[in-house]
Specification:
Blueprint lengths: L4 H102 L8 E2 L2 H11 L4 E2 H10 L4 E4 L8 H11 L7 E4 L16 H18 L4 H6 L2 E7 L8 H12 L5 E5 L9 H11 L3 E6 L6 H7 L7 H7 L5 E4 L8 H18 L18 E9 L13 E7 L2 E7 L5 E6 L2 H4 L10 E6 L5 E11 L6 E7 L4 E2 L2 E9 L3
Parallel strand pairs: 1-2, 3-4, 5-6, 5-7, 7-8
Antiparallel strand pairs: 9-10, 9-17, 10-11, 11-14, 12-15, 13-14, 15-16, 15-17
Helix pairs in contact: 1-2, 1-11
Length: 495
């Protein structure tokens, strides 16, 4: 077999020629394309990496901002709760102060002290005013230390609920440390057995709160509001306690008074018929297109501001609005304790509790010592016929008896400055021209716990020991009242 050299050479030439053409027109462009593509891929990957780095940085920044915002939100929530508590403390403190003032004015011969059940309220009042208010146990201990014998407790609760029960339980621990302990009725009085039971207290409350709501809404009367299509809804707290029937009784009381456009509801929805949705349906069925919401609470705090008038979707204002039925929904943020007529009910309940004690029995057992005392200074018992008129508790029922030239005068420090004059004799005689009116002194009494108070004192002439005599008192309202008093058990002082 022979090889054709010329064919071989021509084949080689053709191969290299083809290779040259492929390299120039195929391989080189393809390589450049692949290099360019790789470069583009590399650039894309780098941009991706840059983007990822930026994303990671942004995510980290967002996470930090979120953490900071979360902290801020928590702080704001805490501050908001603190602010709510602070506002509640101020409202509660001012409301109770007004009630205490009314009680003191109505009972000038009694020492009126106040206590709070919520420590957080006590703390806020002390932080704001540097005023220390006792809790219940502290107030009771202070009364024991100061020698209080007759204790009347006026709860500022709405009804006989859980808080009232807790107060009574606390008092049970001290009942043996006083001669008498009496708990006055809360605002709504006795609970009653069922929803139909109403009483004078509930009638007074219903009339007082409705009149105040009508006046605040700008109507001349409840009937005028009714003609205008306006309903008044009073929102209470609600409770699982058996006293929850009080809300149903208030609803029954409104019907008994023919207050057709007044409705009673509760935040907690107990009893069931006083839940917000049921109240909305009741108002709709009655045909009223305007609503005024007002709290059925002694103090208008968080429930009134948020649960009733707040902007959250579950507030009563929002739920009434969401029903789409009513033309207007107004709110009145004011507690019952701000109403004068409500204060008077508490005053009346306190009076009833005081009256239940009856006249204090005379503890004088010593025989008459008329004409047997030598000149000098003694302490002596000063007994009265009324638990509303007595010596300051710091003096344990005694005054300073001075005997000079056979004449006796006893100095007594009273419980306040509400008795402005005394007269030895009857009230009728005190009103006559030329009556020898006894003027007060300003005494500083010091209680066993170290606290002090300024009160009025009087120098009362004493004709005889162990014998009752007339002593009229004049209060700040300008009325004279008759009383019987006696002085007994003189004991020499160390002076």
């Amino acid at each position: 077999m022979s090889i054709n050299v010329s064919e071989v050479i021509w084949t080689i030439v053709c191969f290299f020629a083809l290779l040259f053409v492929l390299k120039k027109f195929l391989f080189d462009p393809l390589i450049r394309f692949m290099e360019q593509r790789q470069a583009a891929i590399d650039q894309g990957l780098e941009r991706g990496r840059d983007a990822q780095r930026k994303k990671d940085e942004n995510d980290a920044a967002l996470r930090e901002k979120w953490r900071e915002r979360s902290v801020e939100v928590k702080q704001l929530l805490a501050e908001g709760k603190t602010a709510d508590d602070r506002e509640r403390a101020w409202v509660l403190e001012s409301t109770q102060k007004e009630t205490n003032k009314a009680l003191q004015e109505a009972n000038p011969d009694w020492s009126v002290r106040r206590a709070f059940t919520a420590q957080i309220i006590i703390n806020h009042v002390q932080a704001r005013d540097d005023e220390k208010i006792d809790n219940v146990d502290q107030a009771l201990e202070r009364a024991v230390d100061n020698g209080v014998k007759n204790l009347v407790v006026q709860p500022t609760h709405l009804m006989h609920g859980a808080e009232y029960d807790e107060l009574v339980e606390a008092l049970d621990n001290y009942k043996d440390k006083f001669e008498t302990v009496t708990v006055a009725e809360p605002l709504l009085g006795e609970v009653g057995s069922d929803a139909t039971v109403i009483n004078e207290d509930k009638a007074k409350v219903a009339e007082a709160i409705t009149a105040e709501a009508v006046k605040t809404a700008g109507y001349d009367s409840l009937d005028a509001a009714k003609e205008d299509g306006t309903a008044f809804v009073f929102m209470g707290h609600g409770t699982s306690h058996s006293a929850k029937v009080s809300y149903s009784q208030m609803a029954a009381q409104m019907k008994d008074l023919s207050y057709d456009n007044v409705f009673i509801g509760t935040v907690e929805g107990e009893p069931e018929d006083t839940s917000c949705e049921n109240v909305i349906e009741a108002v709709k069925e009655a045909g009223y297109t305007k609503v005024v919401l007002r709290p059925l609470m002694v103090v208008a705090g968080d429930h009134a501001n948020n649960d009733m008038a707040g902007d959250d979707e579950d507030s009563w204002k929002s739920q009434f609005t969401a029903s789409g039925y009513f033309d207007s929904i107004d709110t009145q943020i004011s507690g019952l304790g701000r109403i004068d007529a409500i204060e008077q009910i508490y005053v009346d309940h306190t009076k009833d509790a005081i009256d239940s004690l009856g006249a204090l029995e005379s503890t004088s057992t010593t025989e008459s010592t008329v004409g047997t005392l030598e000149d000098g200074t003694y302490t002596a018992k000063f007994d009265t016929d009324s638990s509303m008129f007595h010596v300051n508790e710091a003096d344990e029922g005694r005054g300073i008896l001075t005997v000079q030239d056979g004449k006796m005068t006893i100095h007594i420090s009273l419980v306040s400055k509400k008795i402005v004059n005394l007269f030895v004799g009857t009230a009728d005689d005190a009103k006559k021209d030329g009556a020898a009116i006894l003027e007060p002194t300003t005494d500083t009494v010091k209680y066993s716990d170290g606290t002090t108070d300024e009160v009025y004192g009087f120098d009362v002439p004493v004709e005889a020991l162990d014998e009752e005599f007339d002593l009229a008192i004049l209060g700040t309202k300008g009325e004279w009242y008759d009383h019987k008093v006696s002085v007994s058990d003189p004991q020499e002082t160390d002076n």
